[in-house]
Amino acid sequence: MESTVASKLEALLKLQSIDSQLDEIRRVRGDLPEEVQDLEDEIEGYEVRVRKFDDEIAALNESIAQRKQSIKDAEGLIRKYEDQQQNVRNNREYDAITKEVELQKLEIQIAEKKIKEAHYQIEQKNSEIEGTKHRLDERRKDLENKKHELDQIVSESEDEENKLENERKNAASNIEDRLLSAYSRIRKNVRNGLAVVTVKRDACGGCFNTVPPQRQADIAAQKKVIVCEHCGRILAGVEQRIY
Question: Positions of the region Disordered (predicted)?
Fold first, then answer.
């Protein structure tokens, strides 16, 4: 049992060491990965906005074409009614045709007003598109610069990172699922990513709270997996002081 627990703790310490090295490599990148992702999301939002404006302009142009056709149809009806007025038999027929002509002229006026409004809307949307495309170009340049910067940093440590990733995979394969799951959960919940630590100078190597002598003796015996009662980190050993 002693040997089994000791080997588990040794495997966890090895995994923690590898993860700490990977954390350090990724820490050098700073916020660049998040900045790149934010810029990509922002660019996608601008592209969606431009496509929306284009669709709205297309719909407005279609409505303009329809209203222009309506005007032509109304003008055709007016000519027809005016011809009919030449052959009316009484004032009642003349007044009825006159009302139809006036109605068609009103339809033309409304259509022309709607066309004018649509042209204004198109002008406004084109202005919005121009501004959005300008911001889009700026963000694309920013993204290109950030990606170049990130790629340079990644390329400098790519070989080492790949090597560590392979080592991590091998190290993780030697740890039972339940313990590996607990390790991953602790890493997510602590700020510095240290899930497995040793006792140094009578204190937890993670939160630096004092570990009582009897508990240190239990940790050193490695008969069971013990966690810090303050921070929940796994305590994998006790480092001896050198006097």
Answer: 129-169
In sequence order, what are the residues at sequence separation of 6 or more whose Cβ sits closer than 8 angstroms to the Cβ of residue 172?
Answer: 15, 180
Count of Cβ atoms closer than 10 Å to residue 126 Cβ: 13
CB of 52 closer than 8 Å to CB of 226? no
Residues 65-89 have a mean pLDDT of: 94
Q: Does the predicted TM-score (pTM) go above 0.70? A: no
Assigned token pair, 216: 């240190």
DSSP result, 10-37: HHHHHHHHHHHHHHHHHHHTTTHHHHHH
Cα–Cα dist 175/14, whole Å: 11
For residue 241, the model assigns a pLDDT of 62
Q: What is the spatial distance between Cα 83 and Cα 68, in angstroms, rounded to a whole number?
A: 23
Q: What is the DSSP letter of 152?
A: H
**Gap between the Cα atoms of 32 and 21, Å rounded:** 19
pLDDT at 18 over 60: yes
Distance between CA 238 and CA 214 in Å, rounded? 12
Q: What spatial distance separates the first Cα and last Cα of the chain, rounded to whole Å?
A: 32
Alpha-helical (H) ranges within the chain are 2-28, 32-85, 91-173, 177-189, 213-221
DSSP one-letter code for 239:
P
Strand partners, 234: 196, 227
Rounded distance between C-alpha atoms, residue 228 and residue 213, angstroms: 13
The encoded tokens of residue 40 equal 């990509």
